[in-house]
Specification:
alpha+beta, Ferritin, 3 domains, five-stranded mixed β-sheet, flat
């Protein structure tokens, strides 16, 4: 990767890159500053200094930059390009929305998470203006979630009376979930011209069903530059109030639209790497290097043993885990096995782990250190433990604790990594159930 492939997010970093460019290309320092700024996603050095100064002067807590991109192609003129904008958020992207929730998010449905600070549209509009409108629409949804704390939902948010229970004049609606109050909220964004004749009817609907209906001061997500209006509604009979959302939206900055967005000036065909993408790539590289690094193996840290019945040769760590540690891990595994008999993806993997450990403990301790009564109860006999079923979250914690204890008491070797890998797969299977 060349120096000009890296996106910089500070004036000091741009200046350092400019010195290298000036020396490499034999150009003036001022031209090198503009070049370095353009590589970093700005129009020129003045644009970079103004934009980054605005970011650093923001006194709001934990400001995070997220990039929103859409590629476009005009089939008639055969021209193409990309539109990318910056969005300032109080929360990190992955705190706002999970990858699986994009499909339910208003105007984010065809975007995907590309990096920890970058979302990209899978759909290609036919013009730069259409692309810019799409990225601004996605940015407004991120704004809305950041301001309100709401999360996208696929739930049906209206009284349970079929079509007759629908909010009159409802248009461009979306469903949201308040994770703190554990309550759903509906968003309605009709055009102002069409909703005016429905105001009295909508108010009557709210009174009839005992629902709250309010219009925030914030203009909305759908098409605020084209006179759409935002309304929020929720079931007031269950004690939910919209006041907190309305107050938060009243203090928020204006919705992002093409006229006020912070565009990233870059060559559409040049590499564009956000700071988050660079960090993700470096983390993956470090992980790959660590995974491929040769680890000690052979007789120094593992030892061969034979399975009691089949006589098959296997290897185990050349170490002895204390009996009480075996007992603790056995207890954790049995608590998972009791509740997960019907979940093969979990049960089979955890059962394989305890079977292996049952063989290891026989090789590690003789009868003086471990009586038969103790041995028979270490990893089996889970039917006698009793107790009510535990939650998936508790099972995940139990499995992760068991894995950490294995890594703590045994050296890093292939047999241990195999057991920890089975535990990780069991955890993933449980997470799919939640």
């Amino acid at each position: 990767m060349s120096k000009t492939d890296v996106q910089l997010s500070s004036i000091e970093g741009i200046k350092r890159l400019a010195k290298a460019i000036s020396k490499r290309d034999s150009i003036s320092h001022s031209k090198a500053l503009d070049t370095a700024s353009q590589v970093s996603g700005f129009g020129n050095f003045q644009h970079a200094r103004r934009s980054l100064a605005a970011y650093s002067a923001d006194t709001s807590p934990a400001r995070n930059v997220v990039y929103v991109s859409t590629f476009w192609r005009d089939g008639q003129t055969r021209t193409s390009g990309r539109e990318t904008i910056r969005v300032l958020l109080a929360k990190r992207l992955d705190e706002l929305i999970k990858p699986a929730q994009y499909r339910y998010a208003h105007k984010l449905g065809r975007f995907r998470r590309h990096a920890s600070d970058h979302v990209i549209d899978e759909y290609r509009p036919d013009s730069a203006s259409a692309a810019l409108a799409r990225v601004c629409g996605a940015a407004r949804v991120l704004q809305f979630m950041d301001i309100t704390g709401l999360r996208p939902s696929k739930a049906r948010v209206e009284p349970r009376e079929g079509y007759s229970g629908r909010l009159p004049g409802c248009d461009h609606g979306s469903a949201w979930y308040d994770p703190v109050a554990k309550h759903h909220v509906g968003a309605d964004e009709p055009y102002s011209g069409s909703v005016q004749s429905k105001i009295a009817e909508r108010d009557a609907w709210a009174r009839k069903h005992n629902w709250s209906l309010a219009r925030p001061e914030w203009a909305g997500m759908y098409y605020p530059e084209g006179s759409s209006e935002l309304y929020l509604y929720a079931d007031a009979s269950k004690g939910y109030s919209l006041d907190g959302l309305l107050q938060a939206l009243s203090k928020a900055s204006s919705p992002i639209v093409p006229a006020n967005c912070d565009k990233v000036a870059i060559d559409a065909h040049a590499p564009f790497v956000t700071p988050g993408e660079k960090a993700d790539a470096e983390a993956k590289l470090a992980s790959d290097v660590q995974r491929k690094a040769p680890s000690p193996r052979g007789p120094k840290i593992t030892v061969e043993y034979r399975l009691p019945l089949s006589g098959k040769r296997r290897r185990r760590p050349k170490a002895a885990m204390p009996v009480d540690a075996h007992a603790k891990i056995g207890e954790l595994l049995k608590r998972v096995l009791i509740d997960m008999r019907a979940r093969a993806g979990v049960y089979k993997r955890v059962d394989a782990v305890r079977g292996e450990l049952d063989d290891w403990v026989q090789c590690e301790h003789d009868r003086q250190a471990m009586s038969d009564a103790v041995f028979f109860g270490l990893y089996y006999g889970e039917n006698s433990t009793g107790g009510k079923p535990e939650t998936g979250k508790q099972h995940i914690e139990n499995l992760r604790l068991a894995g950490s204890m294995l890594m703590q008491h045994y050296p890093d070797c292939a047999p241990v990594r195999d057991l920890v890998g089975k535990i990780d797969l069991a955890v993933r299977s449980i997470e799919k159930l939640r």
